[in-house]
Specification:
Helix content: 25-40%
Number of strands: 10
Distance between the termini: 13 Å
CATH class: Alpha Beta
Number of domains: 1
CATH topology: Rossmann fold
Structural class: alpha/beta
Order of helices and strands: EHEHEEHEHEEHEHEHE
Strand order of the largest sheet: 1-10-9-6-2-3-5
Largest sheet: 7 strands, parallel
Oligomer: single chain
CATH architecture: 3-Layer(aba) Sandwich
Shape: globular
């Protein structure tokens, strides 16, 4: 695991996007196509914006996969991750395909559908974040580190729901859904490259535990210590508790 501390969110976005773009270009050069996993949230704003400005990416050879989505939330809702990705990525570049998670119908059938599709793809790079409670995607603690199922129905814990409310995506805490569809931990770890971004001091405790603490389902992001090509990009506030930052 490599850690990069940036001076600002904008600089973090440029650096993480540059690494991601290199992974995409390399995959297209080697295999004629690239598959990517895309997260949402505040930590991804600068990365996605910078990724769109990277030169020489043939987006027509890129297939995208959605990391997680609430169950029962319409795409028209401001907190919809489908809406987020449509606005900030999918509508802006000519992707070969983008596989959204639709949480409005039969959730288990949607997990099965997406699992069948992603198993046919070699993931070049996953863009992910760190939850305030250390969650990885929507795999809240204690996370399932063992299942090989690519997509899961998960329960969202109190701290996760509080984060979503606190970031302003929902009017009240009670409006935050209690369940979601999430890519599993093992599926994320199958990515050739993982780029993880975290911003703000509210992430500092989870970041320190994920990087310098033990690997444990109680801090799901800590599993990234086992991945051979993970880089965590942090602003100075998120890195503040690191002993070796």
């Amino acid at each position: 695991m490599e850690v990069v501390v940036s001076s600002s969110a904008e600089e973090l976005g440029k650096e993480s996007a540059r690494m991601g773009a290199n992974a995409i270009r390399a995959a297209i050069s080697e295999r004629g196509e690239a598959s990517i996993i895309v997260a949402t949230g505040v930590s991804q704003f600068a990365t996605l914006a910078a990724l769109l400005t990277e030169p020489d990416i043939d987006w027509t050879k890129v297939t995208g996969f959605h990391l997680d989505e609430y169950i029962g939330l319409p795409v028209s809702h401001p907190a919809s991750f489908r809406g987020y990705l449509k606005k900030r990525l999918v509508d802006l570049v000519p992707l070969a395909e983008f596989h959204y998670i639709d949480g409005e119908g039969d959730a288990q059938a949607e997990c099965d559908r997406l699992s069948d599709i992603i198993c046919q793809h070699d993931i070049a790079v996953a863009f992910i974040g760190v939850g305030e409670n250390g969650h990885l995607a929507f795999n809240d603690p204690p996370a399932d580190f063992e299942t090989e199922r690519p997509y899961l129905i998960v329960d969202l814990d109190h701290d996760c729901r509080r984060q979503q409310s606190g970031e302003g995506w929902f009017a009240t805490f009670d409006d935050v859904p209690r369940q979601a569809i999430s890519m599993s931990v093992q599926q994320i770890l199958k990515s050739r490259t993982i780029i993880c971004c975290a911003l703000e001091d509210r992430k500092a405790v989870a970041v320190q535990a994920a990087i310098e603490g033990p690997i444990t389902p109680d801090l799901p992001t800590s599993i990234l210590q086992q991945h051979p090509s993970t880089t965590i990009f942090l602003d100075q506030a998120a890195a503040a508790r690191l002993e070796r930052a």
